[in-house]
Amino acid sequence: MTNEELIKTISDWFPNVEFTEEGSQFLNVIVPKDSILEVAQKLKAEVSTSLDYMFSLTCVDWPDHFQMIYHLKSSEIGHMLVLKVKLEDKENPEVETLCNTFKTADFHEREVYDLFGVKFLNHPDLRRLFLTDDWVGHPLRKDYVDEINIVSS
Amino acid sequence: MEQNVIMNPDGTQEYFVNMGPQHPSTHGVLRLVLTLNGEIIEKVEPHLGYIHRSIEKMCEKDNYRQVIHLTDRMDYLSAHMNNHAVCLAIENGLDVEVPDRAVVIRVIMDELTRISSHTLWWGVMGMDLGAITSFLYGFRDHEYITEIFEETCGARLTMNYNVPGGVMFDLHPNFVQKTKDFIAEFKRKLPEYDTLLSNNVIFLERTKGVGILSKEMAISYGVTGPAGRASGFANDVRKHEPYSNYDKLDFKEILYTEGDTFHRYKARIDEMWESIKIIEQLIDNIPEGDFQAKTRKVIKLPKGEFYQKVETARGELGVFIVSDGKMNPYRMKFRSPGFSNLSALNEMAKGGKIADLVATMSTLDLVVPDIDR
Amino acid sequence: MNFSIYDFSAFFTSIHEWLLGMMPEALVTTIEWITIGTAAILFTALLGLSLVYGERKVAAWFQLRIGPNRVGFQGVLQTVADILKLILKEPLTPKSSDKFLYNLAPFIMMMAPFIVIAALPYAKGLQVMDLEVGVFFVTAVSSIGVLGVLLAGWSSNNKYSLIGAMRSGAQIVSYELSAGLAILTVIVLSGSLQFGEIIESQREGWWIYRGHIPVWIAFIVFLIAGTAETNRGPFDLAEAESELTAGFHTEYSGIKFAFFFLAEYVNLFIIVVIAATVFLGGWMPLHIGGLDGFNAAMDIIPPIVWFLGKVTVLILLIMWFKWTFPRLRIDQILTLEWKYLLPISLVNIVLVAFITLMGWYF
């Protein structure tokens, strides 16, 4: 499906998402935080989109919010899009887990929790992945300070 | 080794066994905690982070040219392909046209890297299963290619040869002849691999029907590369989302449906044949011209997001750059193939024996620095 | 002193006579015991050393490398250096192990091959004891080695050593059946358990071609079973269980580990000597019944050279197995024995009994 068809199909199902194509080579679908699970499940289940392969899950630390980025692709049809979720609360960022829909999200979400501190609700086993269990802080945040391990030029 | 005992309600015991960070089978520093029920594995839980060097954080402090040398060290057996991915992402952002000569050189280097990674994998796989001699045979072929790289790029493992716009130096005058000699020699040696392992009845007994991964699970876990293609998941980036000049080359995508250890093994052997085919199509017609396009000394990508996928020897590597217009990337994420492949290990290994776990893990071809970054 | 390389018995008899002329019989017997015992122990030690060196060189040639070539001429002193190193290592004993059994196990493991070495024929007249039940004795005593394995695993107080020892023990006990049945084919054909008589019965030709089909089957079965019995080659899951542990000798270090290590190579030698003697004629040169000129030409080469040649070829063959094939899983090893080798051996016994009865052999 081309981007226009995707926009049309998705906005039929979910009227409250926004779309943009600027600054990116894929179609970006900006989803409100509370409906990300529903959107992802529908996009995977429906035959017309069948976006069943999540090839990247990451987070970006902007000055006033976190942004969760999910790259999806359909293994049958071949089209791709990006789901973006804005997490306003920087003290306690939380979002619903997608690991029941996409099994690959299990490890990726643990990595985001480890390095950014975003909590994933209903994740079966949310603990740090790379760093030791008693590490304090989340290193990939922009405000992370560590005199011992980081050499600031 | 750690030993904890958990009692089941029916009186039997499950116990934990550690396959610690130090392994006889050298896959890197990976710790697996197995929950066993006698000889049968109930759960495999990987513990990562022993070689986490926070490459993504370092990328935020470096400028775009410096970032490339860090990517060599992620999956060091596909070093060229990692560099290639980052350079392609930067070139897409700058809208720079790479000269034809550089494109062809990059593809030849990529395919040579793929062959060298697969020969090393073959050697290690034989060693894991007990045929220790295959280790040295695999390394013999790996050495040929490493020497070719050393002459042109100056380094054996972490080549750092690609730059945004092309390649760093021109090819060494011996390169074409040496590569042709290697291909001729390798075409005689590759059937030896079949005689030694692929057709050996003990090897077949140990790998057929072991560690099965179905197609839906492969897609859901995001298992790419030869491991995913052996389960039927057609995800070769070179075919479906071609970059460089792969869309003009003639090669097959290797697909099997059985998804067991033997077919993952077979997929890699067949991929080596396809790589030989690609190199043969290119090695005689390297176009003349510039090896590097002119780019500014200080590269600044425009604001936005750039994603580039590349097919490494392990699977699909994704480089995701979020730029805010400055000299350094704002966020650089590497979607590593080993990370997703490893997450499917539990699915493949549970219900089998410990000896089967070793065979399965060999065919996943994990390089732990790629997983941990 | 009449020393003849073709028949050592004359030489030894003359020494015996000379000693008897100088001192009473009891003293002579005692001196002979001590001398022969020491010679046997030295021989076993040298054997272990040279087999380890041989294995390393053969492995290197298969792997496109050279192997030890620095210590001594062409590296022959390498094993001496290794043994010195092992002797000087600190012997660590696990605290909660059963001390007596832990220290006993390597000695039992080493003792079994030592006793068997005395019963094997090396050349005409060069044999410590030519027992009437030679083959039976050798098979029975070499089984004592299993005790060493099981004791080592149990007394280490380590769950993984125990698992390794149990697997190894199961493997050795299973494959002894097939090995014994394989030797039995030649016993049936030659009609005697005594090594000397078995070799004499091959004067007209070795059993490997006099006994055609059943002996070929028995030879192949014996080679497979022999490799499995010594925990070598594709059947080395117990010791190369580097997936989890190092098997039953995980907790041993220093000289005790050296005992296990050397015992494995001496066991290999014993299996090969039994195969060479029973199937290939031992020290008997290659004779073809009826061709007297040819036989006389073959007799020029001394028996001890024939013996060493056969043993070397078989040892190289068994080493070839190890460095070529991948490893079998434990359940596949046991399946191979109980579902394939044992029925084949049993049918083979019936076949060879029938053939002997009908006289259908050369």
Structure in words:
The complex is a heterotrimer of chains A (153), B (373) and C (362). With 153 residues, chain A is of the alpha/beta class. Chain A contains three helices and seven strands; from the N terminus they run H-E-E-H-E-E-E-E-H-E. In chain A, strand 1 (18-20) and strand 2 (27-31) form a beta hairpin. Chain A is elongated, with a radius of gyration of 17 Å. Chain B has a single domain, classed as Orthogonal Bundle (Cytochrome-c3 Hydrogenase, chain B). In chain B, the strands form three sheets. Chain B has a four-stranded antiparallel β-sheet. In chain B, strands 7-8-9 form a three-stranded antiparallel β-sheet. In chain B, a hairpin with a 5-residue loop joins strand 1 and strand 2. In chain B, helix 4 (100-129) packs antiparallel against helix 11 (261-283). The longest helix of chain B is centred in the N-terminal third of the chain and has 30 residues, at 100-129. The mean pLDDT of chain B is 86. Chain C has one domain (9-358). In chain C, 68% of the residues lie in helices and 0% in strands. Chain C has 14 helices and no strands. Chain C has helices at 8-20, 25-62, 78-88, 99-117, 134-142, 145-155, 159-190, 195-200, 207-210, 212-229, 255-280, 292-299, 303-324, 330-358. The model of chain C has no long low-confidence stretch (mean pLDDT 85). At the A-B interface, strand 3 and helix 3 of A face helix 1, helix 8, strand 7, strand 8 and strand 9 of B.
Throw out a few tags for this protein.
heterotrimer, A: 153 residues, alpha/beta, Beta Polymerase, domain 2, 5-stranded mixed sheet, two-stranded parallel ribbon, 22% helix, C: 362 residues, mainly alpha, 14 helices
**DSSP summary, beta strand count of chain B:** 9
Number of helices of chain C: 14
Give me the number of helical elements of chain B. 15
Name the CATH superfamily classification of chain B: Cytochrome-c3 Hydrogenase, chain B
User: What's the domain count of chain B?
Assistant: 1
Biggest interface, chains and residues, is: A-B, 34 and 38 residues
What kind of assembly state do the chains in view correspond to? heterotrimer
